[in-house]
Amino acid sequence: MEFSAQQIASILNGTIEGSPDVKVNHFSKIEEGRPGSLTFLANPKYESYIYHTQASIVLVNNDFTPSAAVAATLVKVPSAYAALAMLMSMVEQARPKKTGIGSTACIAATATVGEDCYVGEMAYIGEQSVIGKGCLIYPHAFVGDRVTVGDNTVIYPHVTVGDDCIIGRNCILQAGAVIGSDGFGFAPEGDTYRKIPQTGNVILEDEVEIGANTAIDRAVMGSTLIRSGVKLDNLIQIAHNVEIGKNTVIAAQTGIAGSTKIGEHCMFGGQVGLVGHIQIADRVQIAAQSGVVRSITGAGSMMGSPAMPARGFFRSNVLFGRLPELYSTLNRLEKEVEELKKNNHKQNY
């Protein structure tokens, strides 16, 4: 597909600086731009590349003012990153969509598959499951019994959706994701552990994306609940009976223990760990590799392990770097105090 700068500006309600007639037919990174490509500048760290890129069109934020000449045509928009996402989505949606049922797909007689669906080779859909309209179920995906999948949801290869789980509309389950595995529930019994049956399910509401090889455990009773708009990265563990609020985003290798409740519009960095049975308020940001051991009751940024407010963490980190020096000073002062005590004792006698 080919678009002119004028067409792109019209789609995005942007303004043009440069030639409105220049055309592009593919995307590129700003540092690797080539003629005929469209790129973007959102992070100021990459500004130097805009003065040398060979890309034909660059999306920039409205407040961007170049400090030198720029050969490319600029399209100014409120958010260059969001505008790029919108254009890439348009291109993706324009591509031909897979349809039809593979000859080796296995669909139970009691299952229902909606119109305009694709079910790939060796995919499995279990008894009494209901697949909505326009879904894409790629080869080797497994959808268990009594599962509901909403319209236009995409389930990539080797995804497993366990029995009784509910997947909303317009969801994306990346390759290898497991929805509805047993929660980690075992009751001590002498020197061994007895498995506690995990009788609940997992509910993903609409517009949820689950990254590759992420696992979401079914509830012991009730539901593990992922609210609408949540985006989970790859290699995340969500334990049984966890609830994640609307439009929260969580980066890779995060682990959330059982029955923890997370608010709306939160942002977690990679490798964050949360203990079980705590609550996280709305609009909390937790930095990468933080460990959360107690509830967080108000919005704000948290860092460290155990996690603390970011300002306190930075102050503590400065002191941590000086610990060897402070330790030496403390030892010297202790010796001086002991010497003063001895001298004072001698003078008293």
Overview of the structural elements:
By secondary structure, the protein is α/β, with parallel strands linked by helices. It contains 5 helices and 40 strands. β39 and β40 form a beta hairpin. It is flat. The model has no long low-confidence stretch (mean pLDDT 95).
Can you give keywords for this protein?
about 350 residues, alpha/beta, flat
User: Helix- and strand-based class?
Assistant: alpha/beta
> What is the strand arrangement across the widest sheet?
8-11-14-17-20-25-28-31-34-37-39-40
Described by strand count, sense and barrel closure, the largest sheet is: 12 strands, mixed
Unreliable segments of 5+ consecutive residues:
none
What form results from the Cα inertia axes?
A: flat
Compute the gyration radius: what is it?
Answer: 28 Å
Ends: how far apart? 99 Å
Distinct helical segment count: 5
Global mean pLDDT: 95
Helix content: 10-25%
Task: Tell me the total number of β-strands.
Answer: 40
Report the portion of residues in β strands.
Answer: 25-35%
Describe this structure in a few short sentences.
The chain has 5 helices and 40 strands. It is an alpha/beta fold and 349 residues long.
